[in-house]
Amino acid sequence: MSSQPKTRVIAVANQKGGVGKTTTAINLAAAFAEAGQKTLLIDIDPQGNASTGLGIEGSTRRHTTYDLIFGDVPATDIMRQVGEAPLWVIPATTDLSSADIELMSRARRTYLLQDALRQPAITSVGFDYILIDCPPSLNLLTVNAMVAAHAVLVPLQAEFFALEGLSQLMLSIRELRETANSSLRIEGILLTMYDRRNNLAQQVEADARDNLGDLVLKTVIPRNVRVSEAPSYAVPVLQYDSQSKGAVAYRELAVELMSKHGKLEQEGAAL
């Protein structure tokens, strides 16, 4: 985003469900905000779980991502601040379920989210990070997110078939780089739901690091009951149990990414 070069836009994507994608989007956003980074989480999953997980009740979602992409509602009327933290959410509802059909008939159908993020109501805030929680599929909403993003963060569950689905996602990223977003990169592959006592998990990690090298992030998100419980209380695990292994891991992830982006030197960025 040329008007705000310091803003890092990251799509959190994996076409396979149940890999910790939304959990990662919620808790990474919370960790960035805790570190003093102005962060916007855009929920483009029709299930709206990222919105729920940050305490945005369905009955209060008058304006949503649908309005951001298709409507003329200014972002200032759609963004919702989460408590006192420098964290904002653009929530989603099931209205997005028909988005793929509507996008098909639109000109610039893969660029609508990118265009929406360029409106002054968003760029004037000066966000350090914009995270986009994608649907668990490679549909037009996910394509919009990747076209709007600088990079894709891929949560990867430490299980037997994990690497098989990853190849299709990486192929899609390569195609988009050639056709619609030449600067798109892979932010990193994030191992999630990792149990160090499990030999299979260790083998998946070894295979991932052997095959993908530095693309695999150093931080690993452990399987942690506190991470699983937090959404039922509509708060990130950093707030639900600040000292849990899951909370510590997501803080470590935020530090790893901020270090890559040169943001640790900024005032207030120390965790």
CATH topology: Rossmann fold
Helix/strand order:
EHEHHEEHHHEHEHEHEHHH
**What would you call the structural class?**
alpha/beta
- The parts where pLDDT drops under 50 for at least 5 residues are 1-5, 267-271
Biggest sheet: strand arrangement: 3-4-2-5-1-6-7-8
Total number of domains: 1
Main β sheet profile: 8 strands, mixed
Q: How helix-rich are the residues, as a percent range?
A: 25-40%
Would you kindly provide a written description of the structure presented here, covering whatever features stand out?
The chain is of the alpha/beta class and 271 residues long. The protein has a single domain (8-260), classed as P-loop containing nucleotide triphosphate hydrolases (Rossmann fold, 3-Layer(aba) Sandwich), CATH 3.40.50.300. The chain is 39% helix and 17% strand. The protein has helices spanning 21-34, 49-53, 65-70, 99-104, 112-117, 120-123, 140-148, 162-179, 199-212, 225-229, 237-240, 245-260, and strands at residues 8-12, 39-43, 80-81, 87-90, 129-133, 151-157, 185-194, 216-222. The protein has an eight-stranded mixed sheet, sandwiched between helices. Helix 8 links the parallel strand 6 and strand 7. The radius of gyration is 17 Å and the shape is globular. The model is unreliable at 1-5 and 267-271 (pLDDT under 50).
Q: How would you summarize the topology of this molecule?
A:
Blueprint: E1 8-12, H1 21-34, E2 39-43, H2 49-53, H3 65-70, E3 80-81, E4 87-90, H4 99-104, H5 112-117, H6 120-123, E5 129-133, H7 140-148, E6 151-157, H8 162-179, E7 185-194, H9 199-212, E8 216-222, H10 225-229, H11 237-240, H12 245-260
Parallel strand pairs: 1-5, 1-6, 2-4, 2-5, 6-7, 7-8
Antiparallel strand pairs: 3-4
Helix pairs in contact: 1-12
